[in-house]
Structure formats: structure tokens, C-alpha cells
Amino acid sequence: MTNKIVWRKSSRSGTQEGNCVEVAALPEGIGLRDSKNPAAGHLAVSRRHFTALVRKIKNS
């Protein structure tokens, strides 16, 4: 059985000019990619680091 990766746009991404970040649950953690260029690849981070990143962004 193959797990399908489901990308979703961040609720905090801007709607102007299509500047959106997409996130997905990956086997190795959390994936982040640019919705304008998904073929360019993605950045994978651990769940712990993703949580720390979101916390830091929220506190900015």
C-alpha cells in the first residue's frame, strides 16, 4: 500500500501574487514547498523542528 502525500496551502499564506507555502505530512517529518513551483522540490524537517518554527513565527 502506498501513502499518498497530500499538500495543503498554509492558512497564513498571502493571496496576493500567489505567494503560498504548502505543507504535507511526510514519512520523514513535515514537507514545505513553494506552491508556485512544486516541481522544484521540497524541504523536509522533523516534526519537532517544524513545531519550533511555527512557534517562532507566531511569536514574531
TrEMBL record:
<feature type="domain" description="DUF397">
    <location>
        <begin position="6"/>
        <end position="58"/>
    </location>
</feature>
<dbReference type="Pfam" id="PF04149">
    <property type="entry name" value="DUF397"/>
</dbReference>
<dbReference type="InterPro" id="IPR007278">
    <property type="entry name" value="DUF397"/>
</dbReference>
<protein>
    <recommendedName>
        <fullName>DUF397 domain-containing protein</fullName>
    </recommendedName>
</protein>
